[in-house]
Amino acid sequence: MKRLATAIALSLAVPATLAQQPIVYPAKGQSASQQQRDQNDCRAWAQSSTGIDPAQLASAPVPQESGPATGGGERARGAARGAVGGVAIGAIAGDAGKGAAIGAVAGTMAGGRRARQNQAARNDQAQADRQGTMNTYYRAYGACMEGRGYTIK
User: Fold this and answer.
1) Are 108 and 75 within 8 A, CB to CB?
2) What pLDDT is stored for residue 143 in this prediction?
3) Could you tell me which of 79, 84, 108 has the C-alpha nearest to residue 96?
4) CA separation (Å) from 137 to 50, 60, 102?
5) pLDDT digits (tens, 9 = 90+) for 105-134
6) Whose CA is closest to 45, among 152, 139, 135, 151?
7) How many Cβ atoms from other residues are within 10 Å of residue 39's Cβ?
8) For the residues 27-55, what does the mean pLDDT come to?
9) What is d(CA 134, CA 17) in angstroms, rounded to the nearest whole number?
10) Spatial distance between the Cα atoms of 99 and 82, rounded to a whole number of angstroms
């Protein structure tokens, strides 16, 4: 649950709009050809100073976990917790074994839900990481263009 909250907070902190290419306005009357040269120079500078190649990053798929959410132990822990709770309830009702079985099934289902939530949080985090990387590149690009007399939005 803590991972999910962290992933949600990070995805809200890095909205998709931050990873969009900045808009460049020639504030000092630069010609179209001068602007094109400056943009090319600033793209190269941003790439060399950050180590980020936006073309390579855009072509690489964002790693996404798919399929059944397994491997984190959430289902097993849920089954154990459910069985313990089921034993107590079953003992009161007169059949501890039946209560444990019912509790284990319910716990497994709850653990599966947690596993899916954690998987979704990891996928969201991978997307947020990519957006943050592109944001770093675009901040460097924007700084270069501002240094050459352009307005950046």
Assistant:
1) yes
2) 96
3) 84
4) 6, 16, 53
5) 666 666 677 777 777 888 888 888 888 899
6) 139
7) 16
8) 95
9) 11
10) 9
Nearest to 138 by CA among 33, 57, 81: 57
What integer pLDDT is reported at residue 59 of this predicted model?
82
Q: Confirm whether pTM is higher than 0.85.
A: no
Give Cα separations from 2 to 28, 52, 150 (angstroms): 50, 30, 43
User: In the numeric block, which tokens belong to residue 84?
Assistant: 């313990």
Work out the number of other CB atoms within 10 angstroms of the CB of residue 7.
21
In this model, does residue 144 exceed pLDDT 90? Answer: yes
How would you write 115-135 as a 3-class SS string? Answer: HHHHHHHHHHHHHHHHHHHHH
**Domain segments of the chain as ranges:** 2-12+23-66+73-152
- The DSSP secondary structure of 19-70, one letter per residue, reads GSPPPEE-TT---HHHHHHHHHHHHHHHHHHH---HHHHHHSPPP---SS--
Take residue 132 and report the two structure tokens written for it: 């943050």
